[in-house]
Design brief:
The protein is mainly beta and 434 residues long. It has two domains: 110 residues, no CATH class; 313 residues, YVTN repeat-like/Quinoprotein amine dehydrogenase (Methylamine Dehydrogenase, Chain H, 7 Propeller), CATH 2.130.10.10. 13% of the residues lie in helices and 41% in strands. The protein is built from six helices and 28 strands. It has a four-stranded antiparallel sheet with strand order 3-2-1-28, with no helix packed on it. Strands 4-5-6-7 form a four-stranded antiparallel sheet, with no helix packed on it. Strand 4 and strand 5 form a beta hairpin. It starts with a helix and ends with a strand.
Length: 434
């Protein structure tokens, strides 16, 4: 009741405060190269920020409300002062070069009345498997607009359904790193049962599933509310990839060593069924029935330049076909890592499937549901993982051998942009960040 009276007295909504607490305050705390943090000065200046408690990395709820009360009276100053070309002089310096800076946009959105229900920004996240960073790409401009640093050997990553967090598997520290999506800062490292590989999240955002590629194999289940490793489900073989089915009812894990697909019931969090194929299980994708239930698992396999189809209800492989060998194109086998075809993506309308070909430095488009070849597009050396943002306009290809993310138009089938990123880019995802 006291909190409600607090907002009523200020004449604002709780949503205004939540946006400030979760989106604006991280900007005040961020350290930028060559700049002092906003908090370092404003614990002594107007508008005031509360002094952090010894050892604390964030404010308490009570301190956040005081910060909110102070800063809501200075919204115009908030926009002009730290911006190059804003006020003539700001003792704290010009932290943002332009109004295109994502952090400045966050400040501007709040000053103009944004709440925690704001629509957010679509972003493509490209992890660099031989580096310690993740590039953040704006698909509207196909330019790098930010980055997540300090995660050495990042592997899998996934965006929470509400867009407020990014979860990254950290091979170097054997943790699941929790990243705040507006500040791009790691706020928690959750210990895992073994070396992680890929990761996915439940449709309601309450559980994160981490494939463990160590020991006998497992899927660790992370409770989002407490940010703890709640459970480890034993499966058959070390896990390479893990996926939540489109209907959210199952968690599907694949093992290279055991050549086995393990299907976990998401409701009971127990192993439901398994299926062993003839080779190691690599990336997977899913088609759906009209009612939204899972129809097929599309599977890429070790040492196979093609795709296998598994009938989900029948729990058996029903078809397999090879990707084409384009005439006159050099077959690249040197330094081949993973399967010759390693990376899948389906357009949001469910009508087009993309698969990578490492042998031919290409991505290949197939129509659905008939799996007919539509187009072969050369993208560069060692194409790996794929993603398609919600609008379905472009395909983003992690081209590991060229340290680039390549953008392909889903209608013209032409490469429209090559974006330099970090060292050996592999996992790439897309979604809305808030």
């Amino acid at each position: 009741m006291r909190i409600l009276l607090f907002f009523a007295a200020l004449g604002v909504s709780a949503q205004d405060y939540v946006y400030f607490r979760d989106r604006v305050q991280p900007v005040f705390l961020k350290k930028r190269p060559g700049h002092a943090r906003c908090v370092a000065c404003h614990i002594h200046r107007v508008p005031a920020l509360e002094k952090l408690s010894p050892g604390a990395t964030n404010w308490t709820e009570e301190q956040s409300r005081k910060n909110f009360q102070n800063w809501r009276l200075f919204t115009e100053k908030l926009l002009a002062a730290p911006l190059k070309g804003g006020t003539k002089f700001h003792p704290g310096g010009k932290h943002f070069a332009s109004k295109d800076d994502p952090e400045w946009k966050t400040l501007a959105a709040w000053a103009r009345g944004a709440t925690d229900k704001s629509t957010g920004d679509v972003r493509v996240l490209q992890s660099n498997s031989a580096g310690d960073d993740i590039h953040v790409i704006d698909p509207a401009t196909n330019t790098v607009v930010g980055g997540i640093t300090g995660i050495e050997v990042p592997h899998g990553l996934v965006i929470s359904p509400d867009g407020t967090r990014i979860y990254v598997t950290n091979e170097a520290q054997v943790t699941l790193d929790v990243v705040e999506s507006r500040s791009f800062q790691v706020i928690k490292r959750i210990p895992l049962s073994g070396k992680p590989n890929n990761v996915d999240i439940s449709k309601d955002g309450k559980r994160v599933y981490v494939g463990i590629r160590e020991g006998t194999g497992a899927v660790d289940i992370i409770d989002v509310a407490s940010l703890t490793n709640a459970k480890s489900v034993a499966v058959k073989g070390e896990i390479h990839n893990v996926y939540v089915t489109p209907d959210g009812k199952h968690v599907v894990a694949g093992s290279i060593a055991a050549s086995t697909i393990s299907v976990i019931d998401a409701a009971t969090e127990k192993l439901d069924w398994t299926l062993t194929l003839s080779a190691g299980i690599r990336p997977m994708a899913f088609t759906t029935n009209r009612d939204g239930s899972t129809k097929e698992i599309i599977v890429q396999l070790s040492n196979y330049h093609g795709l296998a189809l598994v009938d989900f209800a029948a729990r058996k492989e029903i078809r397999r076909f090879e990707l084409p060998d384009p005439p006159g194109v050099h077959k690249e086998t040197e330094g081949l890592q993973g399967s010759p075809s390693h990376g899948l993506a389906i357009t949001p309308d469910g009508k087009l499937l993309w698969a990578t070909s490492k042998w031919y430095d290409s991505v290949m488009a197939y129509s659905l549901p008939d799996f007919k070849l539509v187009k072969v597009v050369h993208v560069g050396l060692h194409p790996d993982w794929l993603t398609i943002p919600p609008d379905g306009k472009h395909l983003y290809v992690a081209v590991a051998g060229d340290d680039a993310t390549v953008v392909v138009d889903n209608k013209t089938f032409e490469v429209v942009k090559t974006i330099p990123v970090g060292a050996v880019p592999k996992r790439v995802v897309s979604g809305v960040l808030r």
